[in-house]
Fold this sequence. Notes:
Blueprint: H1 2-19, H2 31-40, H3 42-76, H4 78-90, H5 96-107, H6 111-135, H7 139-147, H8 152-189, H9 195-204, H10 208-236
Helix pairs in contact: 2-10, 3-4, 3-6, 3-8, 3-9, 5-6, 5-8, 6-8, 7-8, 8-9, 8-10, 9-10
Amino acid sequence: MIAALVVLALLGGWELLVRLGGVDELILPAPTQVAQSLWEDRSLLAPDLWTTTYEVLIGLALAVAAGVALALAMHLSPGVRRALRPLVIGSQAIPVPVIAPLVILVLGFGLAPKVLLVALVCFFPVTVNLYDGLRAADPDARRLLRSLQAGRLQTLRFVEAPAALPAAFTGLKIAAAVAVIGAVFAEWAGAEQGLGHALLIANGQLATARAFAATFLLFLLAIGLYGACALLERRVVDWIPDPGPGAR
């Protein structure tokens, strides 16, 4: 309730600032103008929203598959961990806006480069959080299974994997929230559709309200993906008690 009142107050202040001439509408359109653009330009923005959502979902799925495989490999094999961990960490030092044009140049203007760039942005939080969760499993439970002659894979299945799920979902939620960034950078580098492409076109045409509308849709997409992952977490990791609204 308080958050909603704060948002309404900010939107009201923003509207007044623009309507009273405190800022040029060409630079900062009023919220009502952005809402009007969302409706009037829906035939342009809806296909772009679908395109970006499709790119993000496939890229996120690829990042989860690669991240889970890498985390398990590093957890189970010290040699793989020593070889791959620096590469996983170093991958985050690669500036996506710089390599995006190179990826587009090599792979073309199709779906592949967009998916690859989304996956590059997303796979690090998935990999690191799952790996840390596997390493943090209860050592007493591990020792108990070893005393029962359990094998390495049984320990992974019955102790380490369930213990790592909360951390894994934390990484998934972070990845879902930042996946949109990778898609936008990829579309800026070269695309014929997508909300990132719509932003470039709107800015070039000085259609500021449409640019803000596209940005708002990107915001909603990120929030929706995060919420979907949080809902899935509550269904899968059902043994962790909900702290309640007062603890958040």
